[in-house]
Every structure is written in C-alpha cells, then in structure tokens.
C-alpha cells in the first residue's frame, strides 16, 4: 500500500498541531541517513492498519518524489482513546537483513481441545531476522495433531522457515494444549467443615460430662 508522507517540524507543540489536523506524527529510520520526521494522514494509515492486522506487510511511503519501502517498527497508542499517536517506520534496503517482529498464527483444530484441553498460545509475536524477500506475513503453526499435554517449540518449525533466523531460544514454547484445571469440589470443603464442627461438639460434650462428675 502507498501512503503520502510529508516532512514535519519536531517538538511537542508541532506534534500536537499535527494530531489536531488528523495526521500522525511519525519518523523514518534506515536507508543510511539521519532519521526523518514525517506526518501522514490518519485515515490513510488506519486503512492500511486494518488490512494488515494479523500479518506483517510492507508499506510504501511517498515522500516528495522519493518512494520508500518500509515496515512499521513501532506504534504508540493512546491508552484512553485507543487512537494512534505516533509511528516509527523502518526503511527496507535491498540486500540487507531485517530484524522484525511477526505475528504467530495457529492453523487447524487441536484434537486435545475436543477432549477438554485448553489451547495456550505462549508467544503471540516472534522476533526474526531475514532478507526482505524472505519476510513471512506471519509464522504459521499447525496444531491439528496436538493432544492434551503436547507443545510446539521454535525448533519444531525451523525447517518450515529455512531462510528465517529466530532470535529467541529454540526451546521457546509457541503453543500448548494444557490439561484442564480441576474444579474445586465444594462438597469436600463442606465435609471438612462438618467434621470440624462435629469434633468441636464432641469436645464440648466431654467437657460437660466432666463438669457433671
């Protein structure tokens, strides 16, 4: 997707003015040059953001006559309004490896879930390093054979992505089917309480008998 970007002034006051104009203050890194402060249209970027949810994809910034192929490096969101307040872009240079975060996506239905197990996605995003041409939209994990107690780790999927270097330990758990938690049996608690009450009554009865003697 292509989005028009314009160079902007820096500083808090300038950034506030950019947001008031329904634009997003941004900055572009990479390309062997100094970081470039930019502003982009909010609605244009939000359209790209919705389209790219769940996968990693390139975005083309049109800065004057120059077009830059980029990735979103960081996105700041207001905790109250949930609006995007700042963006960091990383320019992608041909022949240079990327360090980037990609989402983890599960495929299929785990048999262990039908038996009462709970699917636990331990990692939702993975840090990887690869050439731009080898960048996957997402790391896909097939869970269709997982039984209760089974797990899939990074080392189990490395063969599927031979051109990708995973930056987390190879034994990192990506997804598991957990044993269902046992529900607390309230009758047992009630039984213990009754036993305690019965014991107290017996002791009270013994004391009464001694007093009557």
Written description of the protein model:
Strand 4 (59-63) and strand 5 (66-77) form a beta hairpin. The protein folds into three domains: 2-92, Ribosomal Protein L25, Chain P; 100-178, RNA Polymerase Alpha Subunit, Chain A, domain 2 (Beta Complex), CATH 2.170.120; 185-213. The longest helix has 27 residues, at 186-212. The protein has helices at residues 12-20, 42-51, 111-114, 154-157, 186-212, and strands at 2-7, 23-29, 36-41, 59-63, 66-77, 84-91, 98-107, 118-121, 125-130, 139-142, 151-153, 165-166, 173-178. Helix content is 25%, strand content 37%. It is elongated. A six-stranded mixed barrel has the order 1-3-2-6-5-4. The chain is an alpha+beta fold and 213 residues long. The protein contains five helices and 13 strands. The mean pLDDT is 84.
Please report the number of helical segments.
5
What's the β-strand tally? 13
What is the end-to-end distance?
96 Å
The helix content is 25-40%
Fourth-tier CATH superfamily name of the largest domain: Ribosomal Protein L25, Chain P
Average pLDDT figure: 84
Unreliable stretches covering 5 or more consecutive residues: none
Q: Can you tell me the CATH architecture of the largest domain?
A: Beta Barrel
SSE order and pairing:
Blueprint: E1 2-7, H1 12-20, E2 23-29, E3 36-41, H2 42-51, E4 59-63, E5 66-77, E6 84-91, E7 98-107, H3 111-114, E8 118-121, E9 125-130, E10 139-142, E11 151-153, H4 154-157, E12 165-166, E13 173-178, H5 186-212
Describe the structure in brief.
With 213 residues, this protein is α+β, with helices and mostly antiparallel strands. The protein has helices at residues 12-20, 42-51, 111-114, 154-157, 186-212; strands at residues 2-7, 23-29, 36-41, 59-63, 66-77, 84-91, 98-107, 118-121, 125-130, 139-142, 151-153, 165-166, 173-178. The protein is elongated and about 55 Å long.
């Amino acid at each position: 997707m292509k989005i028009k970007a314009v160079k902007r002034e820096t500083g808090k006051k300038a950034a506030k003015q950019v947001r008031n104009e329904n634009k997003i203050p941004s900055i572009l890194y990479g390309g062997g040059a100094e970081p470039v402060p930019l502003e982009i249209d909010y609605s244009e970027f939000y359209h790209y953001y919705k389209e790219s949810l769940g996968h990693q994809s390139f975005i083309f910034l049109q800065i004057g006559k120059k077009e830059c192929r980029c990735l979103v490096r960081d996105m700041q969101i207001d905790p109250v309004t949930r609006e995007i307040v700042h963006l960091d872009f990383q320019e992608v240079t041909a022949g240079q490896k990327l360090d980037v975060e990609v989402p983890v996506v599960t495929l299929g239905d785990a048999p262990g879930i039908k038996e009462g197990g709970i699917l636990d996605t331990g990692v939702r995003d993975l840090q990887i390093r690869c050439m731009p041409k080898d960048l996957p939209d997402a790391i896909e994990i097939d869970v269709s054979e997982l039984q209760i107690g089974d797990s899939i780790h990074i080392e189990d999927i490395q063969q599927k992505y031979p051109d990708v270097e995973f930056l987390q330990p190879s034994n990192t758990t990506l997804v598991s089917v957990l044993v269902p938690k046992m529900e607390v049996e309230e009758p047992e608690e009630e039984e213990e309480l009754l036993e305690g009450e019965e014991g107290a009554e017996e002791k009270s009865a013994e004391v009464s008998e001694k007093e009557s003697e």
